[in-house]
Specification:
disordered N terminus, mainly alpha, elongated
C-alpha cells in the first residue's frame, strides 16, 4: 500500500513524461493507427483511464508526442548553431552534427517525426511541417551569412538561399533515416557526408560558378 501511495503521489509532469515516453515508443514501433492505448498505459506503468485523464484522446496524445519530440530536436539544432564566434561553415557543421546525433540517439523519436507524423494527415502533418520550416530557417540564416561574407556572393539571391536550405534539410532528413537503418553509420559520418556534399556546391555558388545544362 505504501508503494502504491508513493506511486500515486508522483508529480503530474513526471507522469506525463512517462506516458509520452511510452507513447513515442509505441507509435514508432507500430504506427499511429495500430498502436494501442492499452499497450501505452502498460509501458508507462499506469492505467488506461489515467492516460485519457491526462491526455484526453489518442489523437491528442500523438500530437503531444510530435510537439515534444520536435521541440527537443529544434533545441538540439539551435544549441549547435548558437556560437556566433564560429564561422558560418563551422556553425552549419555544428548544426548538422547536432541534427544527426539527435536522430541517432533518439531513433523512436526520429521515426515519429520523419515517418509517422507525415503520413497520418492533419493535424499531425502540420506539426511536422512546422518543425521542418524552423530547421530550414536556421539553415537559410547560415547560408545567407556565408553568402554575405564570401567574395562575389552578391550573385546569390534570397530565393537561392531559401531553395538551398530546403534542399539541405530534405537531404538531411533522408540521410538520417538511412543512417539509422544502416549498421555502422555514425552520426558524425552522416553529417560529414552531407557537409561535404553541400559545402562544395555552396562554395561554387559563392564564387558565382553555376552549373547549367547544355
Amino acid at each position: 500500500m505504501a508503494d502504491g501511495a508513493k506511486a500515486r503521489r508522483l508529480p503530474r509532469a513526471v507522469r506525463e513524461r512517462q506516458m509520452l515516453d511510452a507513447a513515442v515508443r509505441s507509435f514508432a514501433r507500430h504506427g499511429y493507427q495500430t498502436a494501442s492505448m492499452d499497450e501505452i498505459a502498460e509501458l508507462a506503468g499506469v492505467s488506461k483511464p489515467l492516460v485519457y485523464l491526462y491526455l484526453n484522446s489518442k489523437e491528442e496524445l500523438f500530437t503531444a508526442c510530435i510537439r515534444r519530440e520536435a521541440g527537443a530536436l529544434l533545441a538540439a539544432v539551435a544549441a549547435g548553431v548558437e556560437d556566433r564566434e564560429l564561422s558560418p561553415d563551422e556553425r552549419l557543421w555544428a548544426g548538422l552534427l547536432a541534427f544527426f546525433t539527435y536522430a541517432a540517439e533518439h531513433p523512436d523519436s526520429w521515426v515519429v517525426l520523419s515517418r509517422q507524423a507525415r503520413t497520418q494527415g492533419e493535424p499531425f502533418a502540420t506539426e511536422a511541417s512546422r518543425m521542418r520550416e524552423e530547421i530550414a530557417a536556421y539553415v537559410a540564416g547560415l547560408i545567407g551569412e556565408a553568402a554575405r561574407e564570401a567574395h562575389g556572393a552578391a550573385g546569390i539571391t534570397e530565393r537561392d538561399v531559401t531553395a538551398l536550405a530546403q534542399a539541405l534539410v530534405g537531404s538531411a532528413e533522408s540521410l538520417a533515416t538511412w543512417a539509422n537503418e544502416t549498421p555502422g553509420v555514425t552520426a558524425k559520418e552522416a553529417a560529414a557526408t552531407l557537409m561535404n556534399f553541400a559545402w562544395a556546391g555552396l562554395g561554387n555558388l559563392m564564387k558565382s560558378e553555376r552549373w547549367s545544362p547544355r
